[in-house]
Each structure stands twice: as C-alpha cells, then as structure tokens.
Amino acid sequence: MMMKRRKSIPFHIGLTIVMLLFLMMLISLFYTPYDPNMMQTNARLAKPSLEHLFGTDNFGRDILSRMMQGSQTAFLIGISSVSVGLFFGFLIGACAGYFGGWIDELCMRFIDALMAFPGILLAIMLITVFEPGIKNTILALGMMSVPTFARIIRSSFMQTKQFDYVKASKAKGAGSIHIIFKHILPNIVSPILVAATLSFSGTILAEAGLSYLGLGVQPPDPSWGRMLKEAQPYIATAPWYVIITGTMITLMVLGFNLLGDGIRDQQDKKS
Amino acid sequence: MVEPILDVKDLDVSFTFPDGQYKAIDSLSFTVHSNEVVGIVGESGCGKTLTSLAIMGMLPDNASITNGSICFRHKRHLVSLSEKEWQSIRGRAISMIFQEPMTALNPVYPVGKQISEVLIKHTKQSRKAIKEQTIQLMKQVGLPRAEALYHSYPHQLSGGMRQRIVIAMALIGEPDLIIADEPTTALDVTIQSQIIQLFRKLKQEKKVSMLFISHDWGVLSQVCDRVLVLYAGQLVETGPISRLVDEPLHPYTKGLIRSIPDRAKRGEPLYTIPGRVPPLKERHRGCPFYDRCRERMEICRTVRPKTVNIKEQMVQCHLYTEEMDVPSS
C-alpha cells in the first residue's frame, strides 16, 4: 500500500526559504563579509553596492553582515522558545489529556488564565519584571506559546487515548509513563510538528516586535527587530535599510508559515 | 472440586451520572475453572464488555464496582488492588484480546515489538531470548515467515494476521486467564473459522482458560464449554453450551436461539425478539426481561426471580422451581 506522496508547492517554497535562511545562519557562524560591529564613519548610510551588498547603516556598519549575525539570534530565539513552550505545553497538555477529570480541569483553567492576557503583553510584563536580554526573551516568548501547545497536545491525547492499542497496552500491564511516551507520543508527532513550525514564525515576529520596542535582545547582540527600529529615522534617506530588514523578517515568517501549512496539508492527505 | 481460576461473586458495577448511580451489572456470579472456556452471550448493552473490563480493572472513569468480589487464583481479591498491583497482573496473569485487530495494534511499532513488550515489562530475560520466544509463539499462532513478520508494521498485514498477532500478544505472558472480547466479530467468515480453529488448538495444547465474549452462537458452540447468558446486567441462564442450545430454559435464551438463521427455516422471516434492552436508567425491580417476554406472568413485573438449578443448568425465571425436573415446553 505505498501511497504516492505529493508534496504541495507551498511546502516546497517554505522549505527552500527556511533552508536558505538556515544556510545563511550557518555561514555567519564562520564568515561574515565585514565585522558586524565595525563602524566606518566615512561610509555611513551607503547605498547597496558591490562593496556593501545591502549598504551600510547609520554608523557605517555593513548591513549584510549584521543581517547574517542577526539570523543567529532569530534562530536561537525561535528554536529555544519553541522548545520551552513545547516542554511546558507537553507537560500540561499530556497530563490534562491523559488523566482527564479534575487534573484536566486544573490544567486547563491554568491555561485559560494564561490565555486571558494577550501573549505579547504577557511577554512585555515578564521582561519588565525581570530584565531584558536573550534569556528572558526566550522564556517570555516560550511562555507565550505554552497555551497553544498545551491545547493541541491535550486534544491529541484525548483522541489517541480512545484507541484500542492504548487500552491493549494497558491490558499488557504498562504504566502511565510508558503509555504516554511509548504509545501516544509517537502517534501525535505530526500535529505537534505543525504547531511547532507555525509557532516558530509567531515567535520570530514577537521577538522582532519586542526588540523593536527595545525590550527584547539588547545591544551588542544583533537583532532584526532592533535593526528595524534603528532604520526607522532614515526611512527617507536610506530606504534600503528598512526595506531589507523588513523583507528578511517577512521571509522568515513566511517561510515557516508555508512550511507548517505544507506539513499539515500532507498530514490531512494521509489520514 | 478444583479451585476455580476466577470466582466472581455478587458483582455489582454501577455508573455514576449527575442524577445518581445506576447498576449496569447486577449481582453477577460465575466461575471459570482451569482449562475451561466460558462464553458470555447477550445483546449489546447487556454488560458483556463491562464484565471483562471489571475483571481487568479497566472500568471507565464513571463506572465502579459497588458490591461483590472478584477472586483470582490464590485468593487474590481483584477489587481492592492498587494501580501498581494491577500492572503486575495485567498481561501476566490475565490478558485480553480485543475485538478490532485494526485498532488494537499501535501503527508506529513493528508487531513483534508489540508482542514482546509484555515480556520486557514482566520478565528479566535478555532481549535476544525474548525475541526468540516471540518468534516461536508467532509460529504457534499460525503466522508464516515469523522472522520477517516480526519487523512488519500493522498496516502491512491482513486482518487475519493482525488478529493472530493480537492473540499472540495475549498469550505471550502465559496468563492464567484470557479474556477475549468478540475476537472474531471483525473478521470475515473464512478467517473467522481459522481463528476458531486456533482457539481450539490453544485450548488443547496450551491448556488456556478463557472468558469468551460473543453474540454468535455458532462461534460459542465451537469453542466454549459453558455459556453465561447476560440480560440487562443480570445472569439469566447458565449451563453447558450443548444444553443451552438444545434445551434453553429462559425465555430470553429461547429467543436468542430461535433468532439464529438456519437452513431449515429457509423462506420464513427471521425471528427477532421484539423490543430492546431496557436502557440503564429504566430498569425496574422485577424480572429485567418482563417487557419483552412471551411467557410473562403477573409476578414477573414486581418480583425478581430467584436462581433455580435444573440439572446442569441454572436459570433465573419464575417459570421454574427447584422441584421441577424437566422443563415443560
């Protein structure tokens, strides 16, 4: 029963964008055209040219180099905060979905409380109480995505729990932990993967937003969101700065959204 | 007399709803002896599956045992076990065969792994020994090329093969009791007869004791020694399978037997018992079968009949009394 798997076009576009950005991040670990923090006062706000492909910013720093290093931060924050969100989301969602009853009630009311605050507001609050920086940004953005993960994982658990093979495994004498990790988790990987991919782009956007407000990543760590903020005063004199930075953020978000949608389409086709 | 493997006494299982408790199984008593296959028969909603779940300690959250005892060999009382104790019994002492071979196997694991899971859980043998034992058993349940099949995934197997895998899964722990919940219902007729042959073979060779739930008298008569007839959570009649088929006493058993399609009845409309099993919330104190009974009397409406022994059969009906020797009709 081999089914011919046709991947959708959005899936391919998304995958290509994400792979290219990832490649850019990898290269930046070893090589950037210029030192991202080197200032050239004689070449401030230079137009894109062969020397500076994306031009320079208000301090004469090479935008391409800063962009490349900024992608490290974007990926770091994206991956870490999705992991944080996934970890706590799984913990809460799995307990709620598997055990049900009053444990479910308790977990879901907690999630409801978390959802009552708009995510970005919650993140701003956390960062203001603690201090801005990469670590706290990751935690704050992770917390922001916990409710989504918890809900998706809970409903997947409730659905999978009904299947006979879960009952059969219980009838074989398996304990709860074994059933949760060995029998249910492998069967709900795809919805989790879709949620994680889609949440990735949301996280990147939120990070850019926080950094734009000056609450996210702090200098000297480069960040796309802060670059956008820095570019704002020069929108008339050096429009490429804003355009390039904005385009990068858009590409990243678009890439992960298309990828997530593509995976979901495929999953729908299978079932 | 030998000590029974399973001794269920006065078992009550109730569902708790917001508006109160309702008995779904009402003072059920029966025993299963060593190397005996006991069938449970009845319409849907009579409590067959609930009985098996109660014995496995896997009742749904809103159901509980409200009275009676389930005594497993060596005088272990199953009703008061903790979840941890249950885990050591399930799979090892009592195991279960599920109805749907399509859903009883986890799609993401090779079937061999799923069979050996029981041994990994309950014994301390090496992985290699476990694998060998699994393959050995897969051959015994009639799976060809067991070595290759060990690594196959459920979707690569046919329904009959999957059911053999499920049966192997129940046998591997060498349990004292196997509960089979309609193990042949989801299979087509040819595969069904092969699986029945397998059960007969297992009974002879492995000396298994089984609780066999079915609503197919044909299947029951081929594998069972004794049959319990359940109606609305109550045991209405029990006895050796041959006696029940030839001379059913309870009007409900008579109805069930009459509604089996038969070549001799060709051309006649198939007999059905009028009405339906009373829903959980509408059961009254008299005989549960009163509403649908063809031989009902006034007493049946208000008084629950006592259990009467007639030869090897036991029946719960006002038509019979202890002194009676042979049924009148």
UniProtKB/TrEMBL annotation, chain B:
This is ABC transporter ATP-binding protein. CDD domains: ABC_NikE_OppD_transporters (cd03257). Coiled coil: none annotated. GO terms for molecular function: ATP binding; ATP hydrolysis activity. Residues 8-257 form the ABC transporter domain. GO terms for biological process: peptide transport. Keywords: ATP-binding, Cell inner membrane, Cell membrane, Membrane, Nucleotide-binding, Translocase, Transport. NCBIfam families: oligo_HPY. GO terms for cellular component: plasma membrane. Pfam families: ABC_tran, oligo_HPY. Belongs to the ABC transporter superfamily. Its main location: membrane. It comes from Cerasibacillus quisquiliarum. It is a peripheral membrane protein. Gene3D superfamilies: P-loop containing nucleotide triphosphate hydrolases. It is found in: Cell membrane.
